[in-house]
Prior knowledge:
alpha+beta
Amino acid sequence: MQVLSYICQVYNLHNTAVFSAAAESHCNQLLKKFRQTKFIFGTKFQRMSISRYSGDTIVTTSELRPHNTLSITLDQEQIRACSAHILRLMEKKTSLEEAIASATERMHQTESLYEPSQQHLRDLTMKLADNRVG
């Protein structure tokens, strides 16, 4: 809000009327009726005054060009750093996914070896139990 106050104070923006470009044809009426001397019509800034000698309206027109004084820009270095960090994280994710897939495959292989051994142990336990009973 302080920036806006400063701009209004320095550039007297609060006394500048802003219109679309179509309203430019009515600038004499605006000058006479509202006693405004500064107007913005689309991208044109017009300053009007009345000649003390002839009483004619004098119009000075200039084109508005953006100065980007209050614009926000992207921090390209920060974007590059974030992109590099994201790439490293994606590589780490891929590496972890590969390690998980490998560990899962080893687990399935171990289970396939373990299951027959478990069955053989159960069979032996049953035989041993049958031999004791009989």
